[in-house]
């Protein structure tokens, strides 16, 4: 496609989105909820069709050499489709954020000034091989009164097209424009690049994916970006931790679903418990196929202990391991002297996503939560809970690790802005 052809192609999406956004912005909550309920019902009803298209995507991706962990991100199951539908139904039960009065005042000159919540407008979302994002993003945008233009990765095109068609049908059944949710069916890089500069039609751009995608969007886009961050997440096992609790938490955070951004990538262990805790944790982790990349002290401890039995799963860490989001069954391991050293390591190498301490010491727990700079900071719980569904948001459009406009799981309120409405009785400024 020529540059003009690309521009014309995207402007058609943008114009439809603008027109749809104007309708959706003032749609009653009941109408938006009807669209979401319809979409939930249609997702479940069309499970076999969605799974068939998804299987084609997975087979193609596998043939191209996609890693097993990334295939897991791409793969849908009946249970995952049911969870997508449940997330939409949760949204219907939530209060509509649009039109909410946040504050107001009456000035001495009689002007009444009211601050109210309104939609952002048109949201562009660029994402990779997670077709559930299509449903989550569409649902959140509908409920918050925003039209959305979705551009998923080529790996999930068939899955995304199937899900997007369901939302179009659900919207039209509810009397709303089908263009409230649009999926770009051309996955070429030049389309994505041009979308990042579609300022005339897109109000905000949200990237979801690996570090490469996010960095490209942040550095290329002229459209304002809400940065959803990569997840170099840590679990710190303190000397006052319950060892069994700490073991269960790190195994869950690393292995329950290693390909997602809230999975743990580094285990920090207090030197006072390292000799006993590390072999036990390593045994559980390596039984699930986790490769351990250890600092020298951790390596020596595990080497002496004879754990893991599979020595191919025990490696020396390099400097780059402390800053890597593996999205795979790989875990960096480091022994630290105290909580302050753990915090310093996290604030040096972390990505501001999700961090956890396991400890029975109240003062250390508070110190960790106060001093770690991250969107979500846990005490005695797995980082895997950083998720809009788990937080009760129905779903999330991403996990923001920046500090402006939103931080953490982005639900309905994070997809809004404010408007000041001012009522007068003929006042003029002298």
Description:
The chain folds into 2 domains: 3-228 and 410-423, Aldehyde Dehydrogenase, Chain A, domain 1; 233-385, Aldehyde Dehydrogenase, Chain A, domain 2. The model has no long low-confidence stretch (mean pLDDT 95). It has helices spanning 3-24, 29-45, 47-63, 68-74, 78-92, 132-143, 157-173, 189-195, 211-220, 243-255, 271-287, 296-305, 339-349, 362-371, and strands spanning 101-106, 112-119, 122-127, 147-151, 181-183, 204-208, 233-237, 264-270, 291-294, 314-316, 330-336, 354-358, 376-379, 399-400, 408-409, 416-423. It is of the alpha/beta class and 430 residues long. A 7-stranded parallel sheet has the order 10-9-11-8-7-12-13, sandwiched between helices. Strands 5-4-3-6 form a 4-stranded parallel sheet. Strands 1-2-16 form a 3-stranded antiparallel sheet, with no helix packed on it. Helices cover 43% and strands 19% of the residues. The protein is globular. α6 packs parallel to α7 and α10 (243-255) packs across α11 (271-287).
């Amino acid at each position: 496609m020529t540059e003009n052809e690309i521009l014309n192609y995207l402007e058609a999406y943008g114009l439809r989105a603008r027109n749809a956004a104007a309708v959706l912005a003032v749609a009653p909550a009941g109408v938006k909820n009807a669209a979401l309920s319809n979409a939930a019902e249609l997702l479940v009803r069309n499970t076999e069709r969605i799974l068939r298209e998804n299987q084609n995507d997975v087979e193609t991706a596998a043939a191209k050499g996609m890693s097993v962990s990334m295939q897991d991100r791409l793969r849908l199951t009946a249970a995952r489709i049911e969870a997508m539908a449940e997330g939409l139904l949760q949204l219907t039960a939530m209060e509509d954020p649009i039109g909410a009065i946040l504050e107001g005042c009456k000035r001495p000159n009689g002007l009444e000034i009211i601050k109210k919540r309104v939609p952002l407008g048109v949201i562009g979302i660029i994402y990779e091989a997670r077709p559930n994002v299509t449903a989550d993003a569409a649902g959140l945008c509908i409920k918050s009164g925003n039209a959305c233009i979705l551009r998923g990765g080529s790996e999930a095109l068939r899955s995304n097209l199937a899900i997007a068609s369901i939302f179009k049908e659900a919207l039209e059944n509810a009397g709303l424009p089908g263009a409230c949710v649009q999926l770009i069916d051309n996955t070429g890089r030049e389309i994505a690049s041009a979308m990042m500069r579609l300022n005339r039609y897109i109000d905000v751009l949200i990237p979801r994916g690996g570090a490469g995608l996010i960095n490209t969007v942040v550095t290329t886009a002229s459209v304002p970006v809400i940065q959803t961050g990569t997840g170099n997440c840590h679990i710190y096992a303190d000397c006052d931790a319950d060892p069994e609790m700490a073991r269960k938490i790190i195994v869950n955070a690393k292995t329950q679903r290693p390909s997602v951004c809230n999975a743990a990538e580094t285990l920090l262990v207090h030197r006072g418990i390292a000799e006993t805790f590390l072999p036990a944790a390593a045994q559980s982790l390596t039984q699930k196929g986790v490769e351990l990349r250890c600092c020298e002290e951790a390596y020596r401890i595990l080497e002496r202990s004879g754990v893991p039995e599979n020595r191919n799963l025990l490696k020396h860490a390099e400097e780059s391991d402390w800053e890597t989001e593996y999205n795979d069954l790989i875990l960096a391991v480091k022994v630290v002297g105290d909580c302050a050293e753990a915090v310093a390591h996290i604030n040096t190498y972390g990505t501001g996503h999700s961090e956890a301490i396991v400890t029975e010491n109240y003062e250390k727990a508070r110190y960790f939560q106060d001093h770690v700079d991250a969107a979500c900071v846990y005490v005695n719980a797995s980082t895997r809970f950083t998720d809009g569904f788990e937080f009760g948001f129905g779903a999330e459009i991403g996990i923001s690790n920046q500090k402006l406009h939103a931080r953490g799981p982005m639900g309905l309120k994070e997809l809004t802005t404010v408007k000041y409405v001012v009522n007068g009785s003929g006042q003029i400024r002298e």
